[in-house]
Amino acid sequence: MARITMREAISKALWEEMERDERVFIMGEEVGVWGGTYAVTKGFYDRFGEKRVRDTPIAEAAIIGGAIGAALTGSRPIAELMTINFAFVAMDHIVNEAAKLHYMFAGQFKLPLVIRAVSGGGRQLGATHSQTPDAIFAHFPGLKVVSPGTPADAKGLLKSAIRSDDPVLFIENATLYQSKGEVPDDLDYLEPIGKSKIQREGDDVTIVAYSKMVPAALEAAKQLADEGIEAEVVDLRSLRPLDMDPVIASFKRTNRAVIAEEGWRSYGVGSEVSARIYELAFDYVDAPVKRVAQAEVPLPYNAKLEQLALPQTEDIYHAVKEVIYG
Amino acid sequence: MEKTDYLNLYREMVIIRRLEESAAELYQKGKIGGFLHLYIGQEAVSAGIGSVRQPQDRLITAYRDHGWAISSGIDPKIVMAELLGKVDGCSDGKGGSMHMADVEKNFWGGHAIVGAHIPIATGLALGDVYLGNDDAITICMFGDGATNIGFFHEGLNLSKVWNLPVLWVCENNQYGMGTTVERASAVSEIRQKAEGYGMANERIDGMDVMQVREDVSRVLETIRKEGGPYLLEIMTYRYRGHSMGDPERYREKEEVKKWEENDPIGIFRLYLINEAIATDDELDEQDAQAESIVQEAVDFAESSPDPDKDALFDHIYAEPTPIEYRGYALEQESEGN
Amino acid sequence: MAELVTMPKLGFDMAEGTLVRWVKAESDTVEKGEVLAEIETDKATVEVESSYAGVVYRHLASEGTALPVNAPIAIIADKGEEPSDDDIDALLGGAGSQVPEKKTVQEERPSEAEGTQAEEMAEPIEEKATSTTPVGGVRSSPLARRMAEDHGIPLAELDGSGPRGRIVKQDIENYLESIDAESVAEGTEAGGKELQPMTAYTMGEVPEDEVIAMSRLRQAISRRMQDSNQNFPHFYLTRVYKTGALMKLRKELNQLLPDEDKLSVNDFILKATALALRQYPNLNASIEDESHIRRHGHVNIGVAVAVEGGLMTVVCKDADQKPLRLIAREVREMAGRARDRKVKPEDIEGSTFSVSNLGMFGIDEFAAIINPPEAGILAVSAVQNVPAVEDGELVIASRMKATLSADHRVTDGAEAAEFIAVLAEFLEEPMRLLI
Fold first, then answer.
1. C273 and C355 in one domain?
2. What is the DSSP letter of A175?
3. Suppose B115 and one of A241, B151, C52, C331 were both cysteines; which one would form an S-S bond, judging by CB atoms 3.0 to 4.6 Å apart?
4. What's phi and psi for C433, nearest 5 deg?
5. Of the candidates A255, A284, A325, which has its C-beta nearest C162's C-beta?
6. Would residue C298 show up in a list of annotated catalytic residues for this protein?
7. Residue A188 falls within a domain, yes or no?
8. Taking each helix axis from N to C terminus, what angle separates B43-52 and B209-226, rounded to the nearest 10 degrees?
9. What is the pTM of this model?
10. Between chains, do A255 and C143 touch, taking CB under 8 Å as contact?
11. What is the pLDDT of residues C61-74, one digit of tens each?
C-alpha cells in the first residue's frame, strides 16, 4: 500500500502493464521524448524505447485509426489523446469504428484497445480545451467508458482496461492528477469495469458522482455530517456499462438523490442516472432527483467566471439541503 | 501459372460479374436492403491483386467490397447470404453489403465511412511491424474520392513517417460518387498526392488482369525488399452507377459504352485464346460453371434463415458484459466471443 | 374439437357476471391456463383462465355485457378448425341461443367515428387543464403516498411541509408519531395544527340532483346490510379499553420489524378477538337452521377494508394460530389487493367473525352491522389520549372504545359481556397475545 497521487497511480499502471505484456505499447502526441504533456509517461521512453512509446504527428484520426488497426493484429495499443477535446477530430474512429467493428463483423475483429484522454475544465484553457463531453461517448454501445475518481481506482481500472479485450475509453481529469490516496502495490491489483462503488456510507441522502465530483461530493458530505446529515456517496466509475445497483439500493434507503457531474446538465450523465432512478425506484422517491452540473455556457477564460460556471462542493451541499427539505 | 490457375482466375472474374448482376436483381426485388455498390467493370483489380498477394499480406478495402470478398476466397454462398442479411453470411447477417470480412483469410473488410479504414490500414501495418511479422504487407484499397478526405492524408503521412509496409491502392474509377476527379481533386493524377509525402508512386492500367498481376507483384516485391509505403493508382471503370438507384446524370451513356468495349473479362478471354492457354469452349464451360455457382449461392442464401432475435445482443463486446436494453439495465448478457 | 366457454361461477352467491374485457381476441391462440378474459362480479374483477388450448374461434359475448352464470361466452377451437353451424348449435344445446357473427373490424369502431381533428384535439386540452392540480388534489411524494396507503392514513388530512404544500416522508412519520404519542397533548386541535383559512365564500348555483348508477359492489352491500339489519336481532355492548400497554408494546415490536411486517393496532385487536372467540365459541358461530347453531372450527376474522365505491371484507384465516407479524403482513397484502380490485376469492371467503376499525378517521364510538351468516362484529374506534381516573387520581391515559354487535338468536347479553371482558384482558395485558 502506498499513498500516491493519481498521476503516479496511472503512471504505475501503465509501466507495470508494459512490463507484464510485451504486446502493450503507447502511442500519442508527445508521449515519448517529451514524457507526456501531463508527465504521465515521463521516463517511459528511456526505459521502453521508441518502438513501444511512439510519438505521433498531430493527427488524431491516424492515432486512433492506427491504434485500431494495430489492435486488430493482436498487439495491445494504448492511444493517448492529449485532451478529450481533440477526440472530436477522431470521432469517427472512436464511435464508428472502435465501437462497432466487433459487432459488424460478428465477432471476428478483436479490439483490445485503450484510449486515454484528459477531460474537465478549471485551468483557464478556454472553451475549446475545457470540455467534459464524457456523456457523448457513453452514449455508444460497443464502447466501454471509464472514469476514476480516486488514485486507487485509477490504477485498478486502467489495469483492467489494458487487460480487457474490448475498446475502453479511459477518461482522466487533469485537476485530479495531484490528488492523493492509498493505492495497493500489488501488480495484479484490478478494479472491475462496469461496477459502481460506495465511497462513503450514509442513510440520509444518496450523492451519485464520478471523477472530479467524487472528491467534491466527499467534501460536501463532511460538511453535511457536521449538521448531522449523513450522505452516501456512490462513485459510478464506469459510465458504460452503467451499474445502477448500488445507486438504487442506496436510494431505496435514503429516498433522495443528488447527481453531480462536471459536464453540462442537458443530456448529461445525470439525465441518464436520474431517469433510471425514476424507472427503477419510483415508489421510493421523496423529492425530485437533483442534478449538479456545469452552467450551460462555453467555459470562459477569466478565472472567477470559470469557477462560477463549474460545479463546486457548495453546489452539492445546497442540492442536498434541498432534497432533504432541510 | 498452370492452366488450371488461369481458368480459375477467369472463372473468378465471371463469378464476381454474375454475383453482382444477381445482387442487382435481388435488390430490385426488395430482398437486399440498404446500399448496394456493384463492382462490375472492376473485376480485374481484385482478381489480379488477390491472386498475387501472399497469405500473410492483409487486405482491407472500402464499401465496394463484394469483388474483394470473392477474391479473398470467401465462398460466394456466404457472400450472398450476407447480402440477404441471413445468419449464414460472413458477418452473421449483421454487417450487410458494406461490411464483409474474413479475418482467417486476412481480409479485413468492407468499410462504410469514406476513408476511415485508411488510418486503420496504417495501424494494421504498424501492428505487423510491432509484432515482428516482417514479411507482411498491408494492401489498402480506396477510391479516388477518398483521397481528398483528412483520413487519407493522416494515414499516408504516418505510414511514411514510420516507414510502414503498406501498399496504398487507389482504384480510380474516375468518379467519387457523381463527381469527377477534376472537380474534386487539386491534382489530376491521384498518384501525385503521394509526392506530397515523398512516397514512391505509380499509375497502372486496371482493365487487364495480367497487367495488374505483373505490376502489383513487382511493387509488392519492392516493398518487401526496400520497405516503406507505396502508392499505386489503378485506372479502372465501373459500368453501373455508384450504387443501386444512381440515376447517373453525371456521365454520358457513350462513355460507359466505350469502357464496356474494354471489358476486363473480354480482355482476359482474348488473352487466353491468343496465348493458346484455353479455347472458346473451355472458357464457355467456365462461364457456365460460374453461373451455376452463383445460382447455387442465391438458392443457398434464400433458404438460409434470418438471425435469431437474440443475435441482436451478440458481439457488442468481446467480454461477457451486462447489456443495457431499452434503458433498463441488465436485461441481457453479451455472449462474448 | 370445438369447446364452449361459459360464464364461470366465481363465488358461492354469484348469479351473474359482467364481461369487462376480452384479454384474448378472436383468432388469438390460447394455452390452457392463460388468461382469457376479465369478469366483474359483486366483489371484484377477476382474471379468468382458459380451460382449453387452441384458438379463440368466436366471442359470444361483447365487452360490457352482463350474463348469468353458465351462459355461453366463447368458443375455442383447434388451430385451423372451422366448426360448422351444426357443431356450434350442438355446443350451445340447440336453437334459441343467438350466436353473433364473427365481428369485423369496422363493426368495432364507435358509431360517432366522424370526430373531426378539432374534436380529437379537444380532449387532450381538457386533460391539460386538470393536470395543474395533482392526482386526487393532493401534492405528495410517491414515497409519502405509499406510506400513507400502508398505514391507512388519509392524505387529505395532512399538511405537507414540502414545497407548495407537498406531503413528504417526514410529514407521514410525524403523523404516525403523533398518534402513538403518550405524552401530554397540548391543545386539542389535531396535533397542534394551525387553523387553515377557508376558501372565500361565494353564493353560487345550486347543482341539479344527480342520479348515479350503483356499482355491483354497492348493490351487494346494500342487499346484505338491509337483510342483516332487518332480519337478525342485533344487540350492542360497548366498552372502553385501556390501551397504554398495547401502544407501548406495539412501538417496541415495530422497531424490530421490517416495513412489510410492521404491526398496526388493528392487528393486535384481530389476534385478541380470535383468542377470545376460542373461549366463547357461540360468538364464532352461525345459525344452521331453526333449531341448530353451527360453532365453527376455524376462527377466521374478517377485516373491513374501504375500497373505491364501498367496503370489502378480507379474511385472516386461523387468526388465533398466527403470530402478530403474520397477521399484519397478510392483512396488509390482502387490503392492498382489495383496493386494487385484484382480490383473490380466498381473500374474501370464509369469515366467521368480523372487525371493523374506524379509528383512523377519529371516530370515538360506533356500532357496526353484522355480516351474515356471522354472529357478531366488533366495531373499533380511535385510540385517544383522554382524561381518566386511575387509583383515584385524574390522569391522561390512552383509551379506545369498541362496540360489539351480537346476534341475539345465538348468544345473550351476559355471555357477550364475558367475551368482552376476556377480550379486554388480551388487549390490556397484551403480553398475553405473545404466548
1. yes
2. G
3. B151
4. -75, -15
5. A325
6. no
7. no
8. 40
9. 0.65
10. yes
11. 989 888 887 788 99
